[in-house]
User: Fold this.
Amino acid sequence: MLQLRLLPNNDHPLWGSAMQRASIRITPRQIALVRESFAKIVPIREAAAVLFYSRLFASDPGTRTLFRGDIKSQGVKLMAAIGTVVKSLDRIETMLDDLRALARRHHHYGVREEHYASAGAALLWTLEQGLGSDFTPDVREAWAAAYELLSGAMIAVSSDHDPTIGTVGSAIGFPALGCTRASSGRIHGAEIRRD
Assistant:
């Protein structure tokens, strides 16, 4: 099992005894399920991107204003980013600097914490549409865990407040999945542990 622990900025005024280190887990089996299922999405990636953005904008119309360019090229970037993450799930520590930079860019564009929940729900819906009967409960849970891992890290970096533990996982309709997070907002490091 891979566990990502985000280390706090102890100098931040919101970090204190009530705050916890973020701890998000994803199992090797879940990583394998994400990779196997994404391989089935790759051949339909353009259609999947269209489905994703259509669902995102329908379920959370406020997100439409976050995208200023051509949505088709944005879809290409989305699928490439998901592919990169999927390949790196078992060595997520190699992506931490990129995740921090991505989180800061998203924050600059106006992405708020609730947008991550909307995007997670749209992603799971898109995967369900694209995979059909291959989108089993185990595959759904694996993708939810992967999304919680990444979105939790990004929210922790870009947030200026103490998010409620489990917000993203709960917002996309899943039980805690053993994933918890709490953050002061500014994260300066991370520790990766393999259990």
Q: What stands out?
A: The chain has seven helices and three strands. The longest strand covers residues 187-194. Residues 3-22, 160-194 have pLDDT under 50 and may be disordered.
